[in-house]
Amino acid sequence: MFSSILTFLRLSLYPAKQVLRLRLAPLHAYMGATFVFTVIVTLMDFLFLRPDFFIPMWLFLHGFAVFFFYLIWVACIALLVQLLTRIRMKRAWPYRQAWPYAVAMTLVPTFLMVLLFQWLPIYSWVPAPILLYYVGYPLTQIPIKKNRGSRT
Q: How far is it, in rounded angstroms, from Cα 52 to Cα 6?
């Protein structure tokens, strides 16, 4: 189980043709990657924000909020993936395949977005083109079946 989560995380670091296989990843792989992302972002926010609230409660509530909003973000990106695959292949990926791919391709750009928002808020828009590249480039590597004319 942990090896598949680590493989999922490793493959999602760089957009390449191999990432297309992650659309078939098991549930524990992409939800585990989401949990790892949530823990890292929560700890990073804790270091930047230095809350004066009861720390265990703040960590729990903030982690829950990060997890919840990240899942909403991934849902929107999964819809974008379905749109792009419909345009590219004339048939959209099912949502159960678009979701793991969206998780894989949003981990790095979303982390950069959060990091830049905490560090230099004026540059928090910079990861948006990176996100579009991460999501879009591997989809251009999908092999397209060519329809041959009927033989008569």
A: 34
Long-range contacts of 107-111 (CB under 8 A, 24+ apart): 107/9, 107/12, 107/13, 107/33, 107/37, 108/12, 108/13, 108/134, 109/134, 110/37, 110/70, 110/73, 111/37, 111/40, 111/41
Full-model pTM? 0.88
**Phi, psi for 144 (deg, rounded to 5):** -100, 130
Query: Phi first, then psi: what are they for 149, rounded to 5°?
Result: -65, 155
Q: How far, in Å, CA of 16 to CA of 10, rounded?
A: 12
Q: What separation in angstroms does the CA of 69 have from each of 50, 63, 65?
A: 21, 10, 6
pLDDT tens track for 46-69:
999 888 889 999 999 999 999 999
How many residues appear in the chain?
152
